[in-house]
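dumping this here so i dont lose it again. seq + smiles for zinc ion
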Amino acid sequence: MSRTLQLAEQLISRPSVTPDDAGCQQILGERLAPLGFTLETIESGPADFRVTNLWAVRRPAAATATKTLVFAGHTDVVPTGPFEQWTSHPFTPTHRGGKLYGRGACDMKTSVAAFVISIEEFLRATPDPKLTLALLLTSDEEGPAVDGTVVVCNTLAARGEVLDYCIVGEPTAVERCGDMIKNGRRGTMSGKLTVKGVQGHIAYPHLAKNPVHAVAPALAELVAINAAAGWDAGNAYFQPTSWQISNFHSGTGASNVIPGSAVIDFNFRFSTESTPESLQKRVHAVLDAHGIDYTLAWTIGGLPFLTTPGELVSSVQAAIVDETGIATELSTSGGTSDARFIAKICKQVVELGPVNASIHKIDEHIDVAEIETLKNIYRRTMERLEASLSR
Ligand SMILES: [Zn+2]
């Protein structure tokens, strides 16, 4: 049985639903300490939502020109949903038809296991590397993510720790491990728009003010900007910025009452061609031009990040070709991840992990054959970065 598979199964057996790490990081720490890693557990959050984070680092023995490669990920998993809907118990790793089933099989306990085993293999062949190796793990990626990776990043930033490369093990592949990696993510920003009107009898509209009628033309204008990709055109790495209404609430439920207010929630997924300020300014301009009486509360969920092709991207691309023959696709699609926090203290960040088709679902699973592939891609990337340091 492959050692990566064995470790992945050990982790899947732990019911580590956010924010409970359920002992996963201890298992990993026990593998890393004998390899020369210094372990630091950073707990954060209130007593009823305590998050466990692990920062493990292995520096070269002798003073040398080094660069730091961080493997980042999470030991927590999303809730299982009803056990009876699973074919086998979500926390009992089970094999069927060449696949390993269990919560976290894809997102992302196999990646975490592959981090550790690839490092073990790398250090066996290169016992004294110039590369500084580190792991950054959290038990709060799937939850609010306020006491997880961001806390570790802030701690490292305060110490002046320099990170050069980071591989986040999120499941990025579409059909086969290695076919897609993320070299950036869009930003996310939400707005809650409250339009004020005057409630009244439908039969006496001159005594009322209908907020839905007031806001409708402005929304039509915003929709038109969106349809024309008019926020920005995107760029070589990003799709155009997208704006979507997620909720629209108004009315009392009665058919003879003009509502007193309307509340509209919307969200931007934005590229590096726009900023929160530029988007906010345009939305306000449209609303103001229509003379609407409103308040608007903004929440920035995450800024976009982009790693342009360089040492890390080319090493990962080459490692994938060597292992699988695939010319990987660079993408910035999908939701946000903890990479948005790491990108603030690390110039080159990519996400590379297994096929994401079954993540967060009932009967989450991974192809067993892909587990070795992923581990080998990680190891080959380390070998390439080490070789570039020795050049
Ligand atoms: Zn994940």
